[in-house]
Amino acid sequence: MEAREDTISSVKRSKETTLTISIEGPYLPLVKFRKALDSFIDLLTAIDQETSDNGKPTIEWSVSSISSGSIHITAVANPINQEISEFRPGQVVETVARGLEQLQASPIVPLGFSEAALNHTKTFSELINPDDFAEIRFGSNGWTHNIAPRLAGNINEIEKATQKFYGSIEGKLVFINVSSKQRFGIYSSLEGKTINCYFKDEMFDIAKEALGHRVYVFGLVRQRLHGPKINIEVEELGLYLHSKNCQLSVRFSKAERTSVIQKPLHYLDSCIFTGFLNVRAEPEIFRECEPIIRAAEQGVIRAFTSAFTMGEVVYVKAAPGEESLSLETQEKIISQLLASPWLEKVSFEPDMAEINRFLLREYGASGKKGLKPYDSVHLATAIRMKVDYFDTIDEELMRLLPKSICCPPRYPKPLILQRPLVENFQLKLL
């Protein structure tokens, strides 16, 4: 393993950065060759753009050699101008090498591989056929890698495993594109990539003003499971402005959520999920929690919860006298529930931190009788998302707080605290 790692690392240390694609087989159809060559070029371009600071190409490729018999094409990389580091080509080729190794081993998105790069990589695996393209191999400075058919299967697994949650992205707005679905790109130093941000017409003017500046966007984020953020449907766009006295202010543009039918918005406290899961151990609590879960499943309401909930729901209790489920089984049950498509998860954001401080100052107290920080996180998330109801079975929390709370002036909408309830919803018995 260490020898393999040293070979990959040597790719970026070579004086001349090259990458060779080799195709072996008894028959080499021109149509398949063109597809392989296009994917080779597009893969290199996609990774270059994905890992550059502004989402634009930084290197150019030229053919240095072509061998006859079987196909061997060697491309050499050079920076597109003198402002680009001489080490940049080696970084891109090393990213390609590490990514191909990782994708063949497991369905995990490699660093620097965008959706486009994954699609181009999958093409090589799909082209392999013992009757014509029997082998496709990549090589650079002593490193070689043979593409295997399982690589396509791993990429298919990656493409299926995505999650959506409400969250934010901060970074420099580096481009605006209004062809087809309008979007702008934010380069996030945290993600190390440029993220596509799809926005509404009413945000166009502030997006133009923000071009080249640091911005904040909030909305529905699509992210690879155990991987990077892919894109965001923007609901709020904030432009950071420095005033003359060097204080930072933010100008916001908002797009209202639209829906043909306005459904009640409910926030589900983490205890709702534990109550639902502990059907064997606490059947009475389960019966109270089940209707609101079913209402969300059936689309009667929109259900939100904090990503913090995913860390709080830890165990599935067994009934008294019964053997506990294995931890592996418990994890599968919990993960399946919290990954439900009807559940809209929300990450913890700066606005929520401000609301959280307000609530703790308003309702917290020294000792055991005040609002606890972990409860306040859930309440702050619900207020930030402007939901109608906060559903909980935490009796102590409901005794401590008034029947409705808010955080003026930015979030004046009252949040109603209640035990789990959906008006006019009848649980259907099977």
Beta content: 25-35%
**Count of alpha and pi helical runs:** 13
Low-pLDDT residue spans: none
Structural class: alpha/beta
- The radius of gyration computed from the alpha-carbon positions, rounded to a whole number of angstroms, is 26 Å
What is the strand arrangement across the widest sheet?
2-3-1-4-5
- Shape estimate: globular
Mean pLDDT across every amino acid position: 88
Strands, count: 17
Defining key terms:
5-stranded mixed beta barrel, 5-stranded antiparallel beta sheet, 3 domains, Rossmann fold, alpha/beta, 430 residues, OB fold (Dihydrolipoamide Acetyltransferase, E2P)
Describe this structure in words.
- This protein has 430 residues and is an alpha/beta fold.
- It has three domains: 158 residues, no CATH class; 93 residues, Nucleic acid-binding proteins (OB fold (Dihydrolipoamide Acetyltransferase, E2P)), CATH 2.40.50; 154 residues, 3-Layer(aba) Sandwich (Rossmann fold).
- It contains 13 helices and 17 strands.
- The strands form two sheets. A five-stranded antiparallel sheet has the order 2-3-1-4-5.
- Strand 16 and strand 17 form a beta hairpin.
- The longest helix has 22 residues.
- The mean pLDDT is 88.
What's the gist of this structure?
The protein is an alpha/beta fold and 430 residues long.
